[in-house]
Every structure is written in C-alpha cells, then in structure tokens.
Design brief:
2 domains, two-stranded antiparallel sheet, 4 strands, 25% strand, PAS-like_dom_sf, PAS domain S-box protein
Length: 109
Amino acid sequence: MQSKDDKITDITAYEIIEYFSLPFYVIEGERIILCNQKALKVFGYEKKEELLGLTPYSLSPANQPDGSSSVVKGREMINKAKESGYYSFRWVHQRKGGRKFLAEVELFA
C-alpha cells in the first residue's frame, strides 16, 4: 500500500507532466509511453492513444535537413543524452498531417 507521501509524489509528477507549459513526452525503449496535452496539440493529435506507442522518429520526416536519417540521428541524440544525462539540439519534427516544424529538443536521461 502506498504511503501518503508516495501518493503526493505520484500526483505531483503526473501534474507536472500534464500541465507543463511545453510539449513533453516520455520515451521508454524507443516508444512514447506518456505525453501531455501540449504534445498532442503540437503534433496534431487529439487523443493520447494516437501518440502513445509511437517513436520519436515517426514524428519526424525520414531525413533531417543535413540529409541524415531521422532514425539514425535520433538514436545518436538519445545516446548523447544517456552519456551525459542531458542533451539539447534542434530537430525537424513532422505533424500528423505532414507539416514540418523546427523544434528545440531537450533530452533528459
């Protein structure tokens, strides 16, 4: 059974994610397992179920502006974050309807 403090911590973590002022999602393995409403909006989705289970690469065009594969480069960025605990970079994402946009991504590991 959870203690009162554990319940407060769980609620607070959920609220921080849900009400964070920027698009935010959590990746486990290579899949999105949690996201907030801002993430849904920026990527053009209406329901969390549409976004959950996708990979960050499926929210990106096949290639980044430098010609590199989004999958290959994305994995490199994730590995850099894992090595140092944090990594920030610019990334071209793609909305559900196909429209591309430039984003400043911050990865925490």
